[in-house]
Amino acid sequence: MTALAVVAIALLLAAPAIGSFFLLREIQRTTAALHRLILMLEQDMGPALTAARSTFEDAGKAVAAVRREIESFADTSRDLRGRVLRAAAATQDRLQDLGAVLDVLHEEVEDAALDLATTLRTARGGMSLFSSVRRALFGRRRRRR
């Protein structure tokens, strides 16, 4: 009976060991399959990852170039806006100066017109006096027809 008990105990101890052996072999096969899958993915995905990195680098360069261009446009716009504002201010100053000149010219023309009217009135008065003196001295002459 002891011998049977020892054999039973040995079988009971051997069963997990044999099961562990088969389990370890299956784990080795699975690990080997995973290793082959990783190698295959590295071979297939390596160029794709390199291309993706290159694409991202190119996109980064393109974004930087676009940013520089936008900043350049913004600088140009600020410069142009400043020039337009300065030109508008200069034009406004010149128009104000022109308005002042036109006001002075208007006053001078009015003064000249009043002086001319006064001179004409005085000349008419002098002409009528001259006509009266001539009539008195020479008499009235008849005009020939």
N- to C-terminal distance: 186 Å
In total, the number of strands is 0
Quick one: biggest sheet?
A: none
Overall average residue pLDDT: 87
Helix content: over 70%
| Helix-strand sequence | H
Strand content: under 5%
Based on CA atoms alone, the radius of gyration comes out at 59 Å
The computed structural class is mainly alpha
Q: Poorly predicted ranges (pLDDT <50, ≥5 residues)? A: none
State the helix count.
Answer: 1
Mass-distribution shape: rod-shaped
Characterise this structure.
With 145 residues, the protein is mainly alpha-helical. It has one helix and no strands. The longest helix has 137 residues, at 2-138. The mean pLDDT is 87.
Condensed summary:
The chain is mostly helical and 145 residues long. It contains 1 helix and no strands.
Helices and strands, with pairings:
Layout: H1 2-138
Write a concise keyword list for the protein shown above.
0% strand; 145 residues
